[in-house]
Specification:
110 residues; alpha+beta; two-stranded parallel sheet; 4 helices; 2 strands; elongated
Length: 110
């Protein structure tokens, strides 16, 4: 058997090596009062798919007075009733006409 203090020492050493301290996060500017928080959902499954069935209710329940919800479909080819449901639940586009994957990062960061 290994003594508990030695186990703790080994675990702490492993933690320091495997998970080094992160750089501090720069402070974010305060949002003006009434400004909505923007949430983006990225998925290749915004279509008749199990992931879409699970996430649709979550997306539909966001408080629209507090959040702007944008869907980024990574597979813009599918057009079906689930895609239409998700498009109706978001403020931004889902599916055909959504930002292409090449412009995704610039659209998401704005």
């Amino acid at each position: 058997p290994v003594a508990p203090p030695l186990l703790q020492h080994c675990a702490e050493a492993f933690g320091r090596e495997a998970f080094p301290p992160r750089l501090p996060v720069s402070p974010q500017p305060a949002r003006p009062p009434g400004d909505k928080l923007r949430i983006g959902y990225f998925s290749a499954d915004f279509r008749s798919h199990e992931v879409a069935r699970l996430i649709a209710g979550v997306i539909e329940r966001h408080d629209r007075s507090r959040f702007e919800v944008i869907g980024f479909a990574l597979d813009p080819s599918a057009e079906d009733p689930m895609r239409a449901r998700l498009r109706a639940a978001t403020t931004g586009a889902v599916g055909p006409g959504s930002p292409s994957t090449t412009g995704l990062t610039s659209s998401a960061s704005s």
